[in-house]
Specification:
CATH architecture of the largest domain: Orthogonal Bundle
Oligomer: single chain
CATH superfamily of the largest domain: Cytochrome-c3 Hydrogenase, chain B
Strand order of the largest sheet: 1-2-3
Largest sheet: 3 strands, antiparallel
CATH class of the largest domain: Mainly Alpha
CATH topology of the largest domain: Cytochrome-c3 Hydrogenase, chain B
Mean pLDDT: 90
Shape: globular
Helix content: 40-55%
Radius of gyration: 21 Å
């Protein structure tokens, strides 16, 4: 008996996607995850543009991850031009990224993931019985937005940050006030982690390669090599290991590592770098009796919740260390070069790779988003998970598959663009 299941509009994810599953005699014959977004051509938009414009342009790829795209772009340009920034700039950039992480995780966990586990279609339906959860989410989201606005100049698409430094630097008083707000938020972050530790998740495990930015001294975000349980390599070697390709049914690029799927995101970060988590984050893990590494993709939600604890703690630490001084951005001189930057966006590793000419114009650009890298692994996870669901009514089967996809926290708007565009000038 043959059966085809079409999920024509996946809900509670960023962007739009469809999933087609074909089953014949209990065998999964087809599993195709299609990003239903239009092609966006951001790499082509950068062609012949001044490289200093790239961060502002590419931050528009995604509102949720605008800071991650901005910083990946900034660092790629700086590496192409040989620009070295100050330690204060590095700390402020980490604060900016941390603010984005806090708002993104709190939104995904409470508004997109939690309703599935509590039996609601959406977060608004939760408010009568679970008002506390919504209030915690909104407070954390407000904190993250405030951090991004303070450091980046506005809530979405930073304007203060730029290649070489910052146009406007917060005052010491503003940083001290932020530290107090972060200290107040520690209770909400801990409550979130404990809340998600108690959720009953499906017993599903599948071996995969967990890939992330790895810093030898800290929980990776802006700097480091690339690492998994398989190997470690420098960022500028990525094309030796990663291959981008297209499939006939999707507008998004797919990515494999040595022709195999891999995972990026919170679970990968924690599998590779959990030893660098804050004391409070480690305490939550110990209380939950969870041991890393993990192979259950449904635990991505728990990992994001633990990361909330870590990032609030880390932001407090940065605020304590910062002794603010007003400084101008480092001067920039154009030269021919190539810059590659991999950063940890909320959903995983984000790549920006630019080649510039002596005038500072971009002659080639490549951007690889976290969701593009996860698509192949998501399909493989769905194929592996489906056999245990085949006896369920179709509506329940669909819900379980949607829960798995939503755990990845995919951003389909980011994932849709073509890699190669042929240019002809006449």
């Amino acid at each position: 008996m043959a059966k085809t299941i079409n999920l024509n509009h996946l809900t509670k994810v960023e962007g739009h996607a469809n999933l087609t599953i074909s089953i014949k005699d209990s065998t999964i014959e087809k599993c195709e995850l299609d990003s239903a977004e239009g092609s966006r051509y951001f790499e082509a938009l950068l062609k012949d543009r001044n490289c200093l414009e790239a961060p502002e342009i590419t931050s528009r790829i995604c509102g949720i991850c605008s800071c991650a795209h901005f910083m990946a772009s900034v660092q790629a340009v700086e590496r192409a031009l040989g620009v070295k920034v100050t330690e204060q700039t590095k700390m402020l950039r980490e604060l900016l990224m941390t603010g984005e992480r806090i708002r993104s995780h709190s939104t995904h966990l409470y508004f997109l993931a939690l309703p599935d586990y509590l039996g609601f279609d959406n977060a608004l339906e939760m408010t009568k019985k679970h008002r506390k959860d919504i209030e915690i989410s909104l407070r954390l989201n407000k904190l993250g937005n405030g951090m991004v606005e303070l450091i980046g100049g506005r809530v979405m698409h930073p304007v203060s940050a730029q290649v070489g430094g910052f146009l406007k630097i917060p005052t010491q008083e503003e940083i001290d006030n932020l530290r107090r707000l972060l200290q107040d938020a520690q209770a909400d972050a801990l409550e979130t982690a404990r809340r998600f530790a108690k959720l009953k998740v499906p017993k599903f495990e599948k071996d995969t390669e967990y890939f992330s930015v790895y810093d030898d001294t800290a929980y990776g975000m802006l700097h480091g090599s690339m690492a998994s349980q398989e190997n470690k390599f420098k960022q500028d070697e990525y094309q030796k290991y990663l291959s981008e390709y297209h499939v006939y049914y999707a507008t998004a690029k797919f990515v494999s590592k040595k022709d195999k799927p891999y995972m990026v995101g919170a679970l990968s970060r924690m599998n590779n770098s959990y030893k660098f988590l804050s004391k409070n984050a480690k305490k939550v893990i110990s209380e939950a009796k969870v041991k890393f590494p993990l192979n259950n993709p449904f635990m991505i939600n728990f990992c994001q919740a633990v990361e909330l604890v870590h990032y609030v703690d880390r932001a407090i630490e940065i605020c304590r260390k910062l002794k603010v001084k007003q400084e101008d951005p480092v001067p920039v001189e154009f030269r021919k070069g190539r810059g590659i930057s991999a950063v940890e966006a909320p959903r995983g590793v984000l790549w920006h790779d630019y080649e510039v000419n002596a005038k500072g114009e971009i002659i080639k650009a490549n951007i690889i988003t976290p969701t593009c890298q996860n698509l192949h692994n998501m399909e493989e996870d769905i194929k592996a998970y489906l056999p245990a669901l085949l006896k369920l009514p179709e509506n329940k089967l669909v819900l379980e598959v949607e829960k798995l996809i939503r755990a990845y926290d995919p951003c389909f708007s980011c994932s849709t663009h073509f890699l190669k565009v042929k240019w002809e000038k006449k």
